[in-house]
């Protein structure tokens, strides 16, 4: 045994009075007045004297303190800082135990600014929350492989294909997020899982739509003047989605223009400009009639509280024995534009609130074709009101 080492004994460590005691080789014991003690190692690295804590005497025995001191001295002899090396190992250990649910929540938090309404509706996170995290949430992200993903999504791969696709995509983004944090993950795991799962047998179906030539007859049947009837009429006339329409507020109306806030548009973000919809003469008449039902600033309130639901409009169409659904009227309008007008593609798509062209093209195109859309929607209004008794308005 080299001279000057192992000066302390287990008994002296336990019975020593308050103070500092050397065990040799830079290992020291600091005994506190309360009887507790701490181990620390003094060493010099790059000409700088440093002290490294090795734990308390209640957790680390004299023998283990010497082992830790030997390991640290070996690192210092290799011209590395034992403290920085320990911190590096701690970070690597922490990275290796990150579980998927923590990564998923962090990924969701970082993407909120890109999501409609900061993702409060839950549509981004829900596929993960319902179909991935219950099985893989507590698993270290570094251990997740294609077989784990396959086994997790196999139950819904063919029966709920769209949900499974979203869950797979979200999981892929979580793995990329983990990699960006410096974690070791298999970024190809989701692609490999898709290969294992195979092509889905599920065939997506379009929302049933009423042929545009049949829209006037249905429009004429909406003659009760109720909130549901009036909401469906305005939905047909404007080509808007039901969400913005159901939450239509008086403050959004300025003359014959309805302005939908950008954050209320599907797939849009807070930085997206507001979307203007020109209102036809018929649309203005419907809104004027609906104002009689307005409550708390909303044009289409529900019977109890809040606004009319999308299901309310859909149920009305079900009771009429129709396969078509409210959202399908957007397709009716789009087909009418294609078959009966010479509307340019970008104007027709803008009527439906679709994004047209690439980012560069949109940057240089500053118009929203408001006047062209006004003319077309006026013609559409005339089409759908064929045979409508004016006394019903």
Automatic annotation (TrEMBL):
Record's keyword annotation contains DNA-binding: yes
Keyword vocabulary terms for this entry: DNA integration, DNA recombination, DNA-binding
Keyword DNA-binding tagged: yes
InterPro entries: DNA_brk_join_enz, Integrase-like_cat_sf, Integrase_catalytic, Integrase_DNA-bd_sf, Integrase_DNA_bind_dom, Integrase_recombinase_N, Phage_int_M, Phage_Integrase
Domain Tyr recombinase: 205-377
Highest taxon above the source species: Bacteria
Pfam families hit by this protein: Arm-DNA-bind_3, Phage_int_M, Phage_integrase
Similarity-based family: Belongs to the 'phage' integrase family.
Official protein name in the record: Tyrosine-type recombinase/integrase
